[in-house]
Design goal:
The complex is a heterodimer of chains A (76) and B (147).
Chain A (H helix, E strand, L loop, with lengths): L3 H7 L14 H11 L4 H6 L1 E4 L2 E3 L11 E4 L6
Chain B lengths: L1 E4 L5 H6 L8 E8 L3 E2 L2 E10 L1 H18 L4 E7 L1 E4 L3 E9 L2 H18 L2 E7 L4 E3 L15
Parallel strand pairs in B: 1-5
Antiparallel strand pairs in B: 2-7, 3-4, 4-6, 4-8, 5-7, 8-9
The chains are: A alpha+beta (76), B alpha+beta (147).
């Protein structure tokens, strides 16, 4: 799922991605940047979530996981 | 009371939601859309959120605050969508038997909410341009420096 500036750069708020078994969040990050080079600088400053919880790059993904690309937040 | 709403926040209702006969203190913080930022003039802000995750993060922070201070009740209401200059985008209310806990916990909560809850604001400047605010990226200062 994409939000804020990332959503504008990608042009959609969500998409499905096919990944290898045992792929991690780090693998997904690399794939995203290859597919959308304009995301690179924002992705470097962003964190990811899996099923609405912040995760590290080493987190392993599974089928149907809901992954969020969370750019630096600015609520309040 | 924890909520994310698309309409005007009733701040008196948020304050009332934490008041109790057990409390000698209740503190209400209101964050509002500011006219001027770094010499530029704001027309309005537009907020969006990752709703399910934002609610979970707010709940987790409220629980942490309750474990750090002797609090009775905590309420957080954030508005998303368009928020015009002068209008309230976030209301945080805290109550406790004694005032120090409410003042400290209220400030801590607002600081933490701004750091970890997946909500974003877009500045609509009066010159017709706009930008998403992502602290620490490109020409934007780190979180806490300006907002």
């Amino acid at each position: 799922m994409f939000f804020a500036a990332a959503k504008e750069l990608v042009g959609t708020d969500k998409m499905e991605m096919e990944l290898d078994d045992e792929a991690t969040v780090g693998d997904l990050k690399q794939m995203l940047v290859e597919q959308f080079p304009s995301l690179m600088t924002l992705v470097e400053k962003s964190t990811f979530s899996v099923d609405q919880e912040y995760v590290q790059d080493a987190k392993q993904l599974y089928h149907d996981a809901e992954v969020g690309l969370i750019p630096p937040v600015s609520g309040g | 009371m924890i909520d994310i709403v698309t309409h005007e926040i009733d701040t008196q209702q948020v304050l009332a939601s934490v008041q109790s006969e057990l409390c000698g203190a209740s503190v209400l913080f209101c964050g509002t859309t500011r006219r001027l930022t770094g010499g530029k003039e704001t027309e309005r802000l537009e907020y969006e959120c990752y709703r399910e995750m934002a609610i979970r993060e707010i709940e987790a922070l409220c629980e942490q605050a309750k474990s750090k201070w002797e609090l009775e009740r905590v309420s957080v209401v954030h508005r998303i969508g368009r928020v015009e200059v002068g209008q309230v985008s976030i209301a945080v209310a805290v109550s406790s038997p004694h005032r120090v806990a409410s003042f400290e916990a209220g400030e801590w909560l607002v600081d933490r909410l701004k750091q970890s809850v997946p909500i974003w604001k877009k500045e609509q400047w009066t010159d017709g341009t706009s930008e998403w605010i992502h602290p620490g990226t490109e020409n934007q200062p780190e979180s806490g420096a300006v907002n």
